[in-house]
Amino acid sequence: MWCYDLYHMDVDELAKPEVVICGVGERLLDGWLTQKPNLPKLVGQIPNLPVKEAVDVRVKLDTYNGHPTDDTNISVTDDSATLELIGWAADFNDYSPFAGLYLKVGEKIFECNYGGERKDVADYYSNEQLIYTGFQITIPVKILDNELQELQFFGVSADGQYIFQPVKYILT
After folding, report:
1. Which of 31, 91, 143, 152 gives 20 to 30 Å between its CA and that of 9?
2. Of 104, 93, 108, 73, which Cα lies nearest the Cα of 158?
3. Domain 41-171, what architecture?
4. pLDDT tens by residue, 25-70
5. Domain ranges of the chain
6. 31-61 per-residue burial string, b: 16 or more CB within 10 A, e: under 16
7. Pseudo-torsion of CA 70, 71, 74, 79, nearest 10°?
């Protein structure tokens, strides 16, 4: 029974409803209307911060275009228009999430959707500071030209004072 129907019912029917669901459709519609596509933010450059050696910085890619991976090689053989990368990243020197995560593809730099909940990572390392270390980014495949050989992830330190040397993934 939708809210609209409540206005067209007798008072007796309203007094003894079996089930009344009011507003759910409205919230669902509102959610559909306000959702934005999950496109990456193209930024001009990586933040201009001092570079720190990535002693124990981890960027772990779980899947690319839905394919699980446990390697630093990414095979882009799909005919799809986009490449979706999902994983987690953190500074294991301090066992902390980054302040931000960037992906460099050729000369283009994208800001990753970073800070997603990864309870599995926090549980595996027995450290609750690692719970919000998930990332996702979707980039257009057309920017992956034949010359491009790698993707580079740059993490910004939790205090925002420096950027780590890149963690690289090889395109095959």
Report:
1. 31
2. 93
3. Sandwich (2.60)
4. 333 333 333 333 455 555 666 677 878 876 789 999 999 888 888 7
5. 3-34, 41-171
6. eeeeeeeeebeeeeebeeeeebebeebbbbb
7. -30
Question: Among candidates 109, 110, 106, which has minimal Cα distance to 135?
Answer: 110
Model pLDDT for residues 115-138, shown as the tens digit of each residue: 999 999 999 999 999 999 999 999
What is 104-131 written as a DSSP string? EETTEEEE-EEEE--HHHHHHTT-GGGT
DSSP 82: E
The rounded distance, in Å, linking the Cα atoms of 119 and 132 is: 8
Phi-psi sector, 170: left (phi>0), alpha (psi -120 to 50), beta: beta
The mean pLDDT of the chain is 76
